[in-house]
Structure formats: structure tokens, C-alpha cells
Prior knowledge:
Layout: H1 34-41, E1 51-53, E2 59-61, E3 66-71, E4 86-87, E5 99-104
Antiparallel strand pairs: 1-2, 3-4, 3-5
Amino acid sequence: MLRPPRSSRQHRLTLTARRNLSGTHPFAITAMNVQQLIEELQKYPPEMRVIVDGYDGGYSNCEPPESTRIRLNVHGKDKWYYGRHDDENYPGGNRDGAIETALLLPRPYRDY
């Protein structure tokens, strides 16, 4: 099964769209849903390798997607090095964000 790549330099991605400095990507700021992801993936050859950003640089093979519960907008701009959202039960940050189920495309713990 073809899995989508993650944007670079984000620790976690839930199908929230990646920042795009050029501003040309249709999902540059808003959240992406599974239907939009499927439409985007149909633009690529099915045999194309799928990668994710490495922990501290480079790229890794993508792990299988998994469903996870998240709290939205937990981390503010001062925590730019975290992803915007976090686990449903994350003890810090903004606890007022809505909780939803999202599709996570995890990076491997280790490639070796």
C-alpha cells in the first residue's frame, strides 16, 4: 500500500497539512482529510517509494499508518518544534482543543 511522505522537520504528522513556503500546495494551512490525501496520492505512480523525514535529518522508510486520538492545537507558536497537535491525554499545553481520531503516518523508531 502506498503511504504518503511527511513534511520535513515535523516530529509527528496526523494529516494536518504541511507548511508550504511557496503557498502553492492546496493544503498549505488547513487540515487534510483522508479523501484529500487519496486524491493527492493518485497523482503519483503506485510503485513510487514513500519516505518520511528522519528524526534529525535525512529520510526514512514510512511505517504503516495507524489511527490515534489527538487533541487539537495543544502547542502554540512558542513551541514551534513540537507539532501543533498532541496525544489526547498530553498533560501540558492548551487543554481546550477538540479531541478527534486522526490517521498517523509514523516514522520508524530506528531504521537499523
